[in-house]
Amino acid sequence: MNLSLRRSGGSSRRRALASVLVFGSASGVAFSFSPSASHAPRPFAALSTRLPSAAAAGAASKHRCDASKLSAGGGDDEFFGSECILTPEGFGFASSGARVLESAGRGNGYHRAKGSDTILDVMEGISGGSADAALVFDDDTDDLIGLFTETDYIRFSSERAAASSEEDAASFIVSPVSSFVTPTADLVSIATMDTANKALAAMQKDSVRHLVLANKISTQNRLLPDSKVEGLINMQDIMAVVQKDERLSLESLAQKYPGITDPVQQMKEQLKSDANALARDPETVKRDVISAGTALISVTSIGLFLSQSAWLHEHADLGMIAIFVLGYIGIIFEEVFEFNKAAIAMLMNTGMWIVYADYFNSAEGVASESVLEQLKEQLSEVSDICFFLLAASTIVEVVDAHQGFKVVTSLITTKSKKTLFWVIGFLTFFLSAILNNLTVTIVMVSLLRKLVPNEDDRRLFGAMVVVAANAGGVWTPIGDVTTTMLWINNNLSTVPTVTELFLPSVVCLVGSLAFLVNQVEEDGSLEESTLPEPSELAPRGQLVFWAGIAALLAVPVFSELTGLPPYIAMLTGLGAMWTLTDIIHMGDEEGELKVPAALSKLDTSGILFFLGILMSIGVLDKSGLLKQLAVFLNENLPSQDIIATVIGIASALIDNVPLVAATMGMYDLNEFGTDDKLWQLIALCAGTGGSILIIGSASGVALMGLEKVDFLWYAKKVSIGAAVGYFAGIATYLLQDAVLHGGLLTSAVPPALAAADVMGSVAGVM
């Protein structure tokens, strides 16, 4: 790299020189200066080849540059003359291997030994001299046999210590050193004119501390049959030369150019200037505004809490709502604020419980016994869901680690894009019925990268996976997390959920896929897919796969038979899988396939997010605010069917977990019993409504990260199709409910008309 210094004033020239001296050698790049075509650039490495034996004396004889001529604007020829060098002695990382050896002051740098010498003799020779290693030569031919270093001595000592008898151990003492050397063919070498930079690169590549210096070497940094060994250098020798040269460079520069009294200080000033320029960047301004706003809100909130404000006592309900709204905004715009939503949820939870415990109604600044009991009760309910998710996610992770899903994916062989579209859709639909939606999305998108080479096609296929995963998770208690929440809270039971939500979920899937498949074009690109030929899964993988599926499917059966909460059943399944994998991998040193490794890969922040959200919703429930919201909705919306439909549409913008948690607190289970139409419709709407926008579900957010799908592309290509399936599923459920429970015309027509009105409003907005 060449830097041209023009006659534009001494200050710019001095800044360039400081930059070169401070950073040039440290980066390992040799710089030369070429102000005009008449002065060709000459790298420092080329200069180093002309160093005489006495480097210091040679440097002292060089012609020194006159800084006064440079400052007058007429010193280019003086500065760039053939005899001018900036640093009197060395060239840092551009120093030659010969100079490194000479500067070390240890002669040739090695102890010379014969192949017949004992190891004790060689070690005595090394310790008695200035070298830290020995080159071993053949007794007869004087050819180099190899290198003996401390590493070889450690190997010798280890073998001696492992000897089976004292006689064998004694024989090691008289062993020839040739038996324990690093052979010549394995020695890493550099030529005498190679730079220190190249020497360090060779050391790093081959993980060695010593380099043989020779007159010529191969391109692989190995000795040739006719190479002549010049010496041996180590890492310490190289760094000593580099550090000496860099220090000398700074001192010399300060002496030659008085205007540059401290190059390092000038670079610090430059860094300050760069930081100031960065602060004017729009992204930096945005971050500063967010930081300032966050700090202001935090300080204000803490001040209100500590001051025992009378206003907060009188308006505690508004305080809780304000904290919830602010926290929710932070969660929705997580990518904008760059705050992790789990952290926001935890802080929101803490703030709301403090307001409720210390300020709500007749609270006197300290949590009462009744509030503490409510807190324990809420934590108990939330813990059920968190432990359930923890156990289920771990089981799926263990199955995936054993490549268990290959049982399913190996069945895909079609080369038709439209056929593949439907196959992947239904495969995702049924997988998400028994597995976590997020996990299924990740697995299927990873598979699509092998099946669908075209990036645009893969985005559409990925969007279809999101729609299918959300629809498939609705109709089983262990599919979508919202259905799981309702099931664990006893709002839903297993058999009615499966039988009454399966058909609407299928219609939702088919409606969306039938709309989206029209965007798929057959072009033969699937012939380029990189999916390997189907192969048989190892017996261990098959065993773990089927055991994992059995553990997941047994959860509702276990709960029905024992009456125990579902999380106990899921933890029992995890315990069984843990024991199974420990037995399978008994004696294995590596633990990547065991449960502890799977636990380390879990999205713990996601579980903490659920904890914070559900605990926050619990405060609103305990305070009665959700009841007030339920009364408002009942008074202003014509039916619970419309309420559920609106909740589903809202889940396209807002995370469905807190939405469902809120509705669970809004409506009393005594009034709307287990498997009531309201709960089933909420499960259907909240699960499938999240597909309308990409930010409406965890699966959609995962797709954004995996395939870089943006919000507007999804809204343009997929949202209408997802909405078609959403309303088709609702209509199917209402029709099915009317048929199963009688009163087809009186029960189905009014809700259907209301749903049509809502659909028309949503379509107008979109």
Automatic annotation (TrEMBL):
SUPFAM superfamilies: CBS-domain pair. GO terms for biological process: sodium ion transport. Coiled coil: none annotated. InterPro entries: CBS_dom_sf, Cit_transptr-like_dom, NhaD-like, TAT_signal. It is found in: Membrane. GO terms for molecular function: antiporter activity. Residues 328-686 form the Citrate transporter-like domain. Pfam families: CitMHS (PF03600). One of its GO terms (cellular component) is membrane. The chain crosses the membrane at residues 289-306, 318-337, 419-448, 460-478, 537-558, 602-620, 642-669, 681-706, 718-735. It is a multi-pass membrane protein. Keywords: Antiport, Ion transport, Membrane, Sodium, Sodium transport, Transmembrane, Transmembrane helix, Transport. PROSITE patterns: TAT. Belongs to the NhaD Na(+)/H(+) (TC 2.A.62) antiporter family. This is Citrate transporter-like domain-containing protein.
